[in-house]
Design goal:
It contains six helices and five strands. It is α/β, with parallel strands linked by helices. It has one domain: Rossmann fold (3-Layer(aba) Sandwich). The chain is globular.
Length: 155
């Protein structure tokens, strides 16, 4: 464990952490990444709240169709975390502001950590879709752990 991550872990343990919000995108997260997150949560004795926010305002129609891949990924990640013995909950939301929805969930569930995986997006995609990580970091009062796109290490 690196010094920076160790410092975060110690700080969070001392705070009596209870819930980690794990933001889940439609893209599949490798099992090695999920396993590292599960091990991290288990060491802290925390529950993971896996959250997928689909773009749109309601299930059904175009919004519901867009959520299907994310919902399937959410189910797969939740199942994988449970097989690792971590207490896990999942939540599927619909919103036009993905960052604000994640922040609302973190606040509502009194999360003490948000984990976001960074996507390898080009400049045009970021301009069109926005940058969720940047939005969350600028507005949160909760620590945020950002995982680079190619990361598959340990926490």
């Amino acid at each position: 464990m690196t010094g920076a991550v160790r410092g975060v872990a110690v700080s969070l343990i001392m705070r009596g952490m209870s819930k980690i919000v794990l933001a889940v995108s439609e893209r599949w997260v490798p099992d090695s990444r999920v396993d590292a997150i599960a091990d991290f949560a288990a060491r802290l004795g925390d529950t993971i709240l896996a959250v997928h926010v689909a773009y749109g305002t309601e299930p059904g129609g175009a919004s519901g169709e867009a959520a299907v891949p994310g919902e399937k990924t959410l189910e797969q990640i939740t199942a994988r975390l449970k097989t690792k013995g971590v207490k896990t909950e999942s939540l599927l939301l619909f919103s036009d502001d993905l960052g604000a929805a994640l922040l609302h969930v973190a606040e509502e569930h009194k999360a003490s950590l948000i984990i976001l995986g960074l996507a390898a997006k080009g400049m045009l995609t970021r301009l069109l879709e926005g940058n969720i990580a940047q939005s969350v970091i600028r507005s949160t009062k909760v620590p945020v752990l950002l995982l680079p796109p190619e990361w598959a290490g340990e926490l």
